[in-house]
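Suppose a classmate hands you a notebook page containing two proteins, each written out with its sequence and a corresponding row of structure tokens. How would you begin to make sense of it? This section walks through that situation. The first entry is reproduced here exactly as it would appear on such a page.
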Amino acid sequence: MSKTLLHLDSSILGDHSVSRQVSAAIVARLTAADPSLAVVYRDLAADPLPHATPASMPADHPLSGGKGDAASQQALDEFLAADIVVVGAPMYNFSVPTQLRAWIDRILVPGKTFAYGAGGAVEGLAKGKRVIVALARGGSYADPSFAAVAEHAETYLRWVFGFIGIEPEFIIAEGIAAGRREAALEAALKDAAALKAA
């Protein structure tokens, strides 16, 4: 049975986006290695999910009262069905785009992707999925003290996916707005081409 790859982009910059170019290169690498991969694509900037309200949650979310929003339920179902998830994630104002955050609000669902056990311990229910993030940052975060206070994209995504049982992989292009765009993109594309197969 063929595996499913869910490809998400969230940059608002269209063809000028570094994260979109890198996420596309990741998908190209994985599908070249396994042509049987079924790819589902979602452009979160072109077709955004609304900000979270109880009525806009998936029907599977307790807040929805069992009603929920069809598009939100589809987003959750796509994630649950995927074996591999590739996320194009630019850093905007030190965090992830609101479009990506809205999608994350749809996949963090009690009883579906995480559960609280005895004593309040969290169990991630999405174990076994492979998540690869193409992260683009305008500045450089090599200084750990600066990164600790200013970097809220990679750290956030590591935590979010870890919360539901997944250890994400990252391919990072940084310094894009600081005169390193071409070098950063070239290095990230090289990393994408060297990615291990699915």
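The notebook's second entry, a different protein, reads as follows.
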Amino acid sequence: MFKFWRQSRRRSPLALLAFLAAAWPATAAELRLVMFEQPGCVYCDRWNTEIAPQYPLTDEGKAAPVRRLQLREPLPPGLELARPVTFTPTFVLTADDVEAGRLEGYPGEDFFWPLLAGLIAVAEPAP
């Protein structure tokens, strides 16, 4: 890309702005883990016991803080899902309030962490 700029015959201000926009690193999207739950959900209770206390202290919790929503409540304005949530728990990873990935159900803590780390790795831009 820098070679292109050096070889360019026209170095107008617009060309410079276009060059800088293409070369500038993209800003990271705000990630959130949206947990859809409902009263009486046994697997939600398991997640709350096994994962919730340590979640904010983990790299995943810092990268994608959890936001809890009730399954039967209307979606907050601006939240865009790829498809409706039909059961609990469902964990939707969002990037700037747009669905970037989903885990349906709670597979236990041994599987939850690597699955979530994989979703975050796909949603975060490479450095």
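A careful reader of the second entry would note: Confidence is low (pLDDT under 50) at residues 1-9, 13-26.
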